[in-house]
Every structure is written in C-alpha cells, then in structure tokens.
Protein 1
Amino acid sequence: MLRPLDTATRERKSLTGLWDFRLDGTGAGHDARWFAAPLETTTTMPVPASYNDVLPDAEVRNHVGDAWYQTMVRVPRGWDGQRVVLRFDSATHRAVVWVGETEVVRHEGGYTPFEVDVTALVTAGEEVRVTAAVNNELTFQSIPPGIVKDTPQGRRQQYFHDFFNYAGIHRSVWLYTTPTNHVSDVTVATDVDHRGAGGTGAGTVRYSVETAGDEGATDTDVQVTLRDAAGATVATGAGAEGALTVTDPHLWAPGDGYLYELDVELVGADGQVVDSYLQTVGIRTVEVRGAEFLINDEPFYFTGFGKHEDSAIRGKAHDDVLLVHDFALLDWIGANSFRTSHYPYADEVYDYADRQGIVVIDEVAAVGQNMGVMSGLLGADPVETFTPDTVNDESREVHAAAIAELIARDKNHPSVVLWSIANEPESNTEASRKYFEPLFALAKQLDTTRPVGFVNVMLSPFGTCQLADLTDVIMLNRYYGWYVDTGDLRTAETHWLAELQGWATLDKPIVITEYGADTYPGLHSMTAEPWSEEFQSAYLDMNHRVFDQVPQVVGEQVWNFADFQTSVGVFRVDGNKKGAFTRDRRPKAAAHRLRERWTVIRGQGVTKA
Ligand code: GCB
C-alpha cells in the first residue's frame, strides 16, 4: 500500500488535531447511530494519541470497548475532479469509519494502515463529518490475543503480553487525492553484483507498478526515472515492470542511509503526465549464508534494542520529537539496529531508519500466543494455546492478514532486513508447528528478498523448538540471571553458554533479540544485587562474555531501549524497568556500558572482531 504523498499530481490534508471523543463500553453507539449527528460529548481527544493517559480518569485508562472519535473536515476547494481517499495510518485495535452517515471502511489490526476511496461522498469546498468507532478488545481471534471478562464490576481485559494495551488513533489520519487513473502500488527490489569488476559491480533496481482507474488506466503507460540523492538521473525505464541498471551505485548500508528516488509516472496517450508517485530506493542486498547475516555481502553484527512505541501521556502515539530523539540516542550509544517489538511501528519510523541507515527487524503484532508463559510466570488459569477454542484457524487467518499487511506496507524499506512473524509463541508442540508452517510459507511467498523468522521463548529451549527449521535466523529472548538463576550470574553464564552452543550447531545466524534486567534508576548496590544499576551492567557484561564465545551469534539487542508501561502486576513497578534509558530517556549506568562496547564494535565496521 502506497503512503500518501504530495507530488505534482497528488495532495494531502492532515486530519490530526483535536477530535470530539466519547467512550462507549456497551457498544450502544452503533445502534444509536452516533455517526449520524454531532457526537454528544464535551470531551476532545488529540489525534494522534492513546486516549488512556490523556485524562486523569481510571475509567478512561482501563476502558474496554469502543471509543468514538469525530471531526468535521472541509475538503479543499481545488480537489474537484480528483479521486479522494480517507486514510488512517492506524487505529488500535480495530475500527469502523463513517463519512457522513455512510459506513466506508472496517479494519482489523491496530498497527497497520487502511484507507478507502470516498470521492462519491465528498464535495470540494464543502465540509464533511468523519466518525470512527475504535475498539480495543483483544480476544483469542485478535493479534495480539486476549480475553475480555464480564465481571460484576464491569468488563475487564486480560492479555498475555507485557505492554499496556494502549488504544485509540495512534498515528496520522489523512484525506488525500490521486488522479482518477493513478499509480496504486509500487514494488522495488534491489540487487548488486558484488563480484563485479573492482568489487563494486552494477546495482539493479527491479520495479513493478500497479495502476488503477475508471478505465483500468488502459490507455496510459508507465515511465520511471531513477535519480540519485543529488537529483541527477541515473536510469530510466518504461513499462509497468522492469529492471534498471545503476553503474557504480552508492549502496544503502548500515550507518549510511543513502537513498535514490524512483519517480513513477503514469503517462496518457497525449503524452501528459496523469499521475506521479515518488518512491525512495536504497540499493542493498540481504542474505543469510550459513551462520552469517550478510548486508551487501559483508557479515553484519546487530547491536541495539528491542524498542516500544511508548512514552508518558501519549502512550503509543507517534511523535516526531521522540522519533528524532530516540534515533539520536541510538547513534549516541553506538547502536546500528532495533526490532519493532512487538508490532509494526508508524510509517515515519521506517522512513527515518532508511535515511539514518539504521537496520530494522520488522515484527508482526503476534505477541502472547503462549499460554505456558502466562500460567508459568504470571499464574494465570492454565489453558492450551492452540485449540479450537483458543488460538485457532480463525486466529491464523487474522495472523496471515497481519503478515500480508506488514509486508505490503514495508516491502520497499531498505532498512527492513528481516521479518519477525511472532514474538515468543508456543513453539515446542506439534500444534504450534501446524499453526505456523503456513504462516512462514506465506511470508516467504510474499517477499522472496528477505529472510523470515520468529522470536523463540525460553520455554522452548534448544532441542525442543519445532519451528527451528522454518526460521532463517534464530532469534532468542533469554533471561539467564534474571527470570532464571536470578541474581546468580556465574551459574547463569554456564547455563546460557551451554544452551547457546546447542543452537550454534544448527549453522544458522543467531540474533539475541532480548536479554535484560529490570533496573530501578538510582538504586545502587555494592554487591550488584538485582534491580540495581550495578546489577544491570554486570548482567549485560555476563551476556556479552557468552555471545563473544559463540561465532554464530550475529547480533545483540538489549531488552529494552527504554522503560515502558505495562499492565499492573506484582512483577512490575509502574511498568517494565529493563530500559537502558528511563521512560523519559535518561541514561542508566548500563547505557554508558553499552556505549563503551557498541562504539567499539561500530568502529570496527559492520562486523564484530
Ligand atoms: C519477554 C517479552 C517482552 C517482555 C520481556 C520481559 O520475553 O518478549 O515483551 O517485556 O520478556 O521483560 O519480561
């Protein structure tokens, strides 16, 4: 799906700002047709924002059900004759949208965009009412899963993942135009002949363009022009599909976010440009070869974090200030990568990663499909994960759609080098294999250019995992010294090394996607006891000693970049405290420790010594 852009033939109008807002715990608003009139409310809510922490009200924070948003928008005068599209960059976890009194779109999944052609419902120069009922309920058929319980005190949401169930309109909302006959999708994939003359062989940009329109855009042609960062044309092509050759390309590489721009034009029979779309292109290759993860044919060692979209008051809302600040902190600490744990992030994040040369592991919102973790660690009622009544065939359809939407949205980002189709699902049973086999096949079919993996949980250690042969890269979340061997780093080190040496026999690259220890900022301990800043540093040092003994380990991503909000529980003190930075992005001692290590690794080039 293409992002809305301002181009020579397209215009956008942002609908961010204050919207009227009303909670609806019983779903009454649908029958009462709240979309048909101005919302009866005096409450306004910023878009984008999670609504939960904006108002100091436990009812709002812990709301389960629909949240209604409404705004009036004047369609720009100049838009007459254009195709007009209404797009939500996300609405968490699902939404129904009306324009005036007409329902225009429904979407399932809280972290990917959806849009609809509303041309027939709007008039240039006139106002129109846009209403969205955004629902935050998690069930076994949603991604991520959860259970809504009816209790005498009201409806309660239980879920199986360790971050707060923030909800609302978290990203931008747009009205935008395209011409009637328009470019509807662009796919680019790049290749480099690394063994070419002088070692810097030609680059290839394969492109494929889809068009749509009233007459199927039949009497139009596609023309493409590839420009370098200085605006000079380096290649041109004609036709909906083709391959462009770039001699001596400036490769996109970790730390060097060099981008070309593909100008895609739809040209009418009279030679007039009907539509123009601009697609950024980073020329690079990604390959798994044996136990190596290669970017541009060079071994790459991931350093960085599992992150969250999370901050005080805003919750999961995208925020450009935080975006630029967080990336500056990644640079400061010497990190070259992060994982979008545990869901697709805002489009802006990937654009910025492309430009900054930061490598991204892109994750689907399938987190918590593991009832073992719940009953084992959190004492929840024991239920099986994969049964007709829990995570079932219908859940898998929703999961498949989430994978397809993620790949459709992010396929053109050079920063994205690896798809993660789930975090810590049950993976040691036949049922899990049956569930996941088709999902791996789907991801590989939808994108033949990137490796596909999933993140393995500690409850499915080496030797028991039934998905290990399906994953291109072994991604491990391990908490030796924290959840097991708590505080005993010497024992933890032995156990961790032993397990890792097992995984190393599979001859696949291993990325440690989580290791971390909760740390209360400012808490100190002469003997490095758990929760202290000293312990967090010692814990990281122990992990690094282990990784450095196993050549198949090609990456380390600390859990987490920053402290973040979770549901309440005896394991959490105002959220998860495993951040290297606090929630307001102040460094703990561990941040300085990581900086010492990672700036050295960065200084050695992409690979670890
Ligand atoms: C995990 C999860 C992550 C949690 C983390 C923790 O394994 O993947 O979502 O926040 O552990 O801190 O317990």
Note: The pocket of GCB is lined by residues 161-162, 342, 423-424, 477, 514, 559, 576, 578 (CB under 6 Å).
Protein 2
Amino acid sequence: MIMNDTPRHATLRRRLAEQLYAKGIKNTRVLNAIASVPRHLFMNSTLEPFAYNDNAYPIGADQTISQPWTVAYQTELLNPQEGEKVLEIGTGSGYQSAVLACCGASVYTVERIKNLYVSATKRFSELNIKVTCKYGDGYEGWAEMAPYDKIIVTAGADSVPHNLLVQCKIGGSIVIPIMENNELRMIRLTRMSENNFNKEDFGTCAFVPMLKGIM
Ligand code: SAH
C-alpha cells in the first residue's frame, strides 16, 4: 500500500501538538515541527491508524519509533536554532531527524542497524527531507562532519561516549539518556570550555539501549 499525506493526517498532527502543549512542551518551533512532520510515513503502513497517538511503536529489528512526547521533550532540551549543525545518534525510523530538520537544523544522523539505515535514507529522499545519514556505530560519533553545535542521542547509554564529548563545540550541548544507579535519566551536558561540561538532570526516561558495533 502506498501511503500519502492527507488533510486528515494534518488535523491529527495538529491535535497531537496540542496534546503535547498540554503535557508541558512549550517551544513553538518544536510544536510546529510536530504539527508538520507526517509521522505516519515513518511507520509501517499497518500502524497508520495509531501514528498520531502519543506512543512508541515497533519499526523492526527490535527497535521503536520514539513516543512523540519524548521526541518533543528531547528536541525542546536541545533547542535547535536555524542553521545549527546537529548530530543525532540512533536514526531508527528517521522521525526525530525530520523533526530536527523541520526546526531548521542541519542534521547528521548515525544508525548501527543496516536495514534501518537503508529504509530511513530512502524515506528522507522520498519525502525530500534534508538529513545526512550514516551507517555506523554512534559511539564513534561522526568525526568527518564535526564539530557540532548540538548532539542528541536517542538510545540509552551507560555513559557519555568520549567521541561525542570531543565532537561537541564549546558552548554547544549534548542531550543523552544515561544509566545512573539502574535508572535511565535524561541528561543535558553543556560544554563550557575545552575540558569543562555543565551537567543538568531532567529525570527518568525510557529508551532502547545504545549498543556497540554495527549489524
Ligand atoms: N530517533 C529514532 C529512535 C529509534 S530507537 C526515531 O525517531 O525513530 C533508537 C535507535 O538507536 C535504534 O534504531 C538503534 O538501532 C539505534 N542505536 C542504538 N545504538 C546505536 C549506536 N551505537 N549507534 C547508532 N545507532 C544506535
């Protein structure tokens, strides 16, 4: 089945953005992106009826498209500005990348699972979304394109990968779910100087694990 975008989908997305506003997301740029990006086109067609529910859904390879609230919340914490260079680790469906691109960022994204990388790349090109995608291990970051204004990790890590710290600009920030005392917590690191990062903790969150290597 070929899916397309319709006024009905647009209405559902606007409603989703309103729900997220009611749940505490206030950044207009982020809410506009949620109201604009056709999430149903980032999911299997059988899940189309659920695409504008605030839930995570399977995308194959034991992975999920993140819950819209999580996407909106992480994007709000990242606060991407027009023209900023953003690195995302964990392309998955490509939905989060598309939201970042819709906020005006110049997006580079890395995925470790070949099939997901291939389908996301195809999707970006079909939907004419300007996101640059790489098949690789996000623990390495993407050195050739560094440094980045902002870095976002959409899988839960045990600690902040060293390469991501190195590839972040001074004054830039990294939003990443980190395991601490057996709890995944949403952390934002802001690079204050060459060797100094300021850490903020935004509470518990749920993500699939960030795994080493490619497959
Ligand atoms: N941002 C995605 C979320 C997908 S779930 C979306 O909007 O759909 C997290 C993704 O991170 C999965 O696709 C998983 O394969 C990927 N991932 C996990 N560890 C990774 C790593 N080391 N490098 C790159 N991607 C990784």
Note: The chain is about 30% helix and 25% strand.
